[in-house]
Amino acid sequence: MGPRERREREREEVRTRILDAARELFANEGFEAVTMRRIADRIEYSPTAIYFHFRDKEALLKELCDNDFGALAHQFEGIAQIPDTIERLRRTGYAYAQFGIEHPNHYRLMFMTPHPPIDPAEQELEKGNPEEDAYAFLRVIVTEAIATGRFRDGLGDADLLAQTIWAAMHGVISLQIAKCNDDWVDWRPLEARTKAMVDMIVDGLTR
Amino acid sequence: MGPRERREREREEVRTRILDAARELFANEGFEAVTMRRIADRIEYSPTAIYFHFRDKEALLKELCDNDFGALAHQFEGIAQIPDTIERLRRTGYAYAQFGIEHPNHYRLMFMTPHPPIDPAEQELEKGNPEEDAYAFLRVIVTEAIATGRFRDGLGDADLLAQTIWAAMHGVISLQIAKCNDDWVDWRPLEARTKAMVDMIVDGLTR
DNA sequence: GAACCTAACTTAACACTGTTAAGTAACGGA
DNA sequence: TCCGTTACTTAACAGTGTTAAGTTAGGTTC
Questions:
Q1: Which among B112, B186, B187 has the least Cβ separation from residue A174?
Q2: What is the reported pTM?
Q3: Using one digit for the tens of pLDDT, what is the confidence trace for A162-182?
């Protein structure tokens, strides 16, 4: 552990300080509202210093999003133990909604904002691993439900069903985030809408 | 029709020219990517000229969104004549999806982007009129389905159900728009996802 | 131990954004 | 003919992400 390692460690430390500052600002005020200069102010560096650690603002965002996807998968911890498949599906839906409501600005960047396609080579998380990949977690439940005959006849495509379930829950959350200030619609409480959606999913898919 | 009227007509003409240019640019490239200067270039005026007709860029957007909400309601023309309530519900879902897919940039601004709350006083469209208000159109269908006993027992809140149906369809479209470039998920074709969602809605709500 | 080199910055600047202040030309009304 | 309003234009401002050109501290090498 010579000076070489220490330098590397210090570098990594600054990097995480940038990430932490950016995460908090993005989460509180949204990506567009936060400037590189304000991130730099927070950590008492010059704005240009950030560019030594990240290619650009987008790269900063990308790294944070990756972390968030991991956090989302963590949200499902404990649910995997629930024995009944359909109950697990219900709980997954609620947990997903909770994540979106608790981190609306993260959710917006993760699921409501178009991003340029990412190079799979530089992907951090392990795709297909239910412990890191929330979609895979859902897909496992759906596959099990199909295999044990819990779903209706004709429903056999696990990906199609997982995508439909995901889209349904995503609809509730994303409308809440984007349109919560809109009184054009006489909104029912979010909890009621979440429960109604989970019910509709289960009633729509199970026998 | 003195010169006073002519002036007013000319003024309105420039206004619509601005709106037309902005609409096309926004639709093709998205709100953020379009600058006031480029809109101005299109119509061969100086950028500041726009500010004589619209308070700011947001106001321009707001006016276009209003038009789009009207266009969405128009998308449902003809569907109102379909006698069977559930078939009408299905067709409304498909028509909504079609609108979103055909105008992704409009859809993004209408439903996927948080806006500051708008003053109801300066609202153009007539809220609650099914011919101008797409949500009201859906609500009428749901109310009818409840009244004629097509929905399951316990499903009696028309607003809650309309919001759930809307959210479900919105989920399909908004995920398509935001995540179509993401190959993390093995996406099924959009048409299959749309149909699967409509089926799940109908199976989940009807007896 | 002196010279050198590179990593990790800072300062200054660029090109661009939405927006505004100040000026101007045309035109209707008195 | 003068005046004032309308509908603009030109020039500028404050702010953005980003980069080019220094600068300085520390480790490496002769």
A1: B112
A2: 0.94
A3: 999 999 999 999 999 999 999
